[in-house]
Amino acid sequence: MDTSSESDAAARARVAEQAARVGAAVAAGSFRREIPVEIKEDKTDVVTQADRDAQARVIDCIHSTYEANAIVGEEADELKSVPESGPAWVIDPIDGTNNFVRGLGVWCTAVAAVRDGEPVAAAVAAPELGDVYVADDEAVTRNGEPVSVSDRADPETCAVVPTMWWEPDRRDEYAAACRAIVDRFGDLRRLGSAQAQLAMLAAGTIDGVVTNVYANPWDTVAGVHLIRLAGGTVTDVHGDRWRHDSQGLVASNGAIHEDLLDAAQEIQAVAER
User: Fold this and answer.
1) Residue 14: helix, strand or coil by DSSP?
2) Where do the domains of the chain lie, and which CATH numbers do they carry?
3) Using CA atoms, how far apart are residues 121 and 16, in angstroms rounded to an integer?
4) CA distances from 13 to 60, 123, 210, 225 (A)
5) Inter-CA distances, 110 with 16, 58, 90, 236, 237, Å
6) SS3 136
7) Helices vs strands, H then E, count in the chain
8) DSSP label at 129?
9) Under 8 Å between Cβ of 213 and 245
10) Which of 98, 88, 138, 113 is nearest to 18 (CA)?
11) Per-residue pLDDT of the chain in tens (273 residues, 90 and over written 9)
12) In 10 A of CB 218, how many CB atoms?
């Protein structure tokens, strides 16, 4: 393939897609099979050998083209924060590991290319759903077809997701999130994979995603890039432009963003009591 006229973002999107597909295929080989499950920090924070194997293959795929680029990843000894300068990659080999180990097909492999701390390309592969989302610096596709956020403007017609995870000692915030959503919007979804949910928002399947917690970059950066390129809005809990180190994540189709911010601030008010 002649890539001499390819933009940097397009080239990185192509590698992101390759890496996400490879990682997802490795993980899928262990899906609904008997594999040991290890607990990391608490009973809901789990990891499997499939996570490690998929991450290794994702990294190999990236480094075959971008050998010197830094990697930010959930597993092993990769960086745990996004560098503020230069190119890097942010990866999650299995986003939704709890779903994965339960045999629930809502999980994905997420890969994002960043430069100077900002995403420039991303891919999310959800093999059990049959979906691969890709964004360069111009547009977003799902399975090769252009997608965009929904145009729903009436909150009572919208489905919103409370995302990330509230630790056991913060379940009052979780309850507040559910209440804030059902009081304002038509329905609530919780699907168990942050990156899959963000990708679905980019494609108009759901209309909003919200949390007040600080989220890991591997759980967010790829999906945030998809949403922005698909015409959506992503801010922190205070309404400022979202970054990989922001507090909270409020992502929407744009039309319902003020309502979603109100929900986020209601959740945060509980946290500040």
Assistant:
1) helix
2) 8-146 (3.30.540.10), 155-271 (3.40.190.80)
3) 7
4) 16, 7, 26, 11
5) 8, 10, 8, 21, 23
6) coil
7) 7, 14
8) T
9) no
10) 113
11) 444 568 999 999 999 999 999 999 999 999 999 888 777 666 666 678 899 999 999 999 999 999 999 999 877 778 899 999 999 999 999 999 999 999 999 999 999 999 999 999 999 999 999 999 999 999 999 999 999 999 999 999 999 999 988 888 899 999 999 999 999 999 999 999 999 999 999 999 999 999 999 999 999 999 999 999 999 999 999 999 999 999 999 999 999 999 999 999 999 999 998
12) 26
- Pick from 242, 191, 237: nearest CA to 221: 242
Apex 138 CA angle, 133 and 139, nearest 5: 35
DSSP for 206-273, written as a single string: SSEEEEEEE--GGGTHHHHHHHHHTT-EEE-TTSSBP-TT-EEEEEE-STTHHHHHHHHHHHHHHHT-
Q: Which amino acid is at 75?
A: E
Phi, psi (rounded to 5 degrees) for 188 = -120, 140
The reported pTM is 0.94
Report strand pairing: 70-73 vs 87-95. parallel
Q: Compute the Cα dihedral for 20, 25, 30, 33 and give only its sign.
A: positive
